[in-house]
Amino acid sequence: xILPVTAVAGRLASGQVSRRDGDSxxxxxxxxxASDGTSIIILDGxxxxxxxxATAPNLTPGAQS
Length: 65
Fold this sequence. Notes:
The protein has no helices and five strands. The protein is an all-beta fold. It has a domain at about 1-45. A hairpin with a 3-residue loop joins strand 4 (about 25-35) and strand 5 (about 40-45). It is globular. The model has no long low-confidence stretch (mean pLDDT about 90).
């Protein structure tokens, strides 16, 4: 799956996205692949057909993932 980088919080090999869960969104961990600076490949953590927010989840400043 390929997402815009603006939809993903994280760096290197791991990140988080906001996945649609009923009437709300849940933050899920994802494994990241290559990026061209505009889009990024999601290697694991989402299934085809999952709907995600176009904006990265709000993370607590200083949080470790």
